[in-house]
Specification:
With 327 residues, the chain is an alpha/beta fold. Helix 1 links the parallel strand 1 and strand 2.
Length: 327
């Protein structure tokens, strides 16, 4: 039987911990036999979470029996990771165990050196901190999970379920994974990535380009050339491009495209306007160009985005995401 060891650290996110327990614990063979032996492990036996304390049945020594080690997210990513935890994960990796993280659990894998030189992901709100703290990691905040073979990372919250279902499929095939997804009332593969959930902050007063950015926001439905923007800012195109990238991390024209897509997201969420009408309202010359750009940036097309987030749906909204902890 495939042994899955899940590490519960102090401050563990309860949802992140429960997802692998339930997903692997309920995966069954065609003759209804359990396929995984799930063991929750910890450095200490009593682990604190935000809402309750957990009595962990196994210690870190159990990792030596694990085929797969899962590290759920923790609430506070600034808390140092215990050397004992790091060594236990490193030993498991050296002997060939598969290591995976959910949400901010990626910081634990990073501290163990398992993500150096690799592409990885975490909750979109924690991605900048991961990239800054561990510059050797190629952080991709736009995907639900990254499979590097032996080492895997997932984005926040429900993305852990995507990762666990993926692992079930790798271990026992699509039929078993599909049944596990059905039990979880979850599609086996979701459209898009976590880019569709990212909150884009408006420009702040600290930005010297703030007046230009606000002007650009108000004229997204117009054609905005680099020359026109430079004239508005009172500088050369070269100077504008340099300052723009320094302050926003992108080019003026790419910023315009991203702003148009953000506006389109809001309209898809709050109005019944057709996709064709929205494409015109946000400044795209054709609906086809809008659909192509939207899909590339958000990871799903406008129609599917509206199905998930439109005015008739009760679900995740940007305002609620801003106050959510990692996980």
């Amino acid at each position: 039987m495939h042994v899955v060891s899940i590490i519960a650290l102090n401050g563990v996110v309860p949802f992140d911990l429960s997802v692998p327990c339930e997903t692997f614990g309920r995966a069954l063979s065609s003759d209804s036999k359990k396929l995984y032996d799930v063991r929750v492990c910890g450095e200490i036996r009593t682990v604190r979470s935000r809402y309750f304390r957990l009595q962990v049945p196994f210690g870190l020594n159990e990792l030596k029996h694990a085929d797969t080690v899962i590290v759920p997210g923790v609430e506070d990513i600034t808390v140092p990771i215990s050397a004992d935890v790091i060594r236990a994960i490193q030993r498991a990796a050296r002997r060939g165990a598969r290591i995976a993280s959910i949400c901010s659990g990626a910081f634990v894998l990073a501290a163990a050196g398992l993500l150096d030189g690799r592409r990885a992901t975490t909750h979109w709100a924690a991605a900048p901190a991961l990239a800054k703290r561990y510059p050797r990691i190629k952080v991709d905040p736009n995907v639900l999970f990254v499979d590097n073979g032996q080492v895997l990372t997932s984005a926040g919250a429900a993305a852990g379920l995507d990762l666990c279902l993926h692992l079930v499929g790798v271990d026992f095939g699509a039929t078993v994974a599909a049944e596990a997804a059905r039990v979880a009332v979850m599609p086996l593969a979701r459209e898009g990535g976590q880019a569709q959930f990212i909150v884009h902050e408006p420009p702040t007063s600290a930005d010297t380009l703030q007046p230009l950015l606000h002007w650009m926001e108000s004229r997204l439905h117009h054609t905005l050339s680099l020359e026109q923007l430079a004239k508005r800012a009172g500088m050369s195109t070269r100077t504008l491009s340099r300052r723009f990238r320094k302050q926003t991390g992108t080019t003026p024209l790419q910023w315009v495209i991203s702003a148009r897509i953000r506006r389109a997201q809001q309209m898809l969420e709050t109005t019944q306007l057709t996709v064709e009408r929205i494409s015109t309202e946000v400044g795209f010359e054709t609906a086809a160009a809008f659909r192509d750009r939207f899909t590339r940036l958000i990871g799903t097309n406008p129609s599917r985005y509206r199905q998930a987030f439109g005015p008739s749906k009760v679900g995740l909204r940007y305002a609620s995401l801003q106050k959510k902890p990692y996980g």
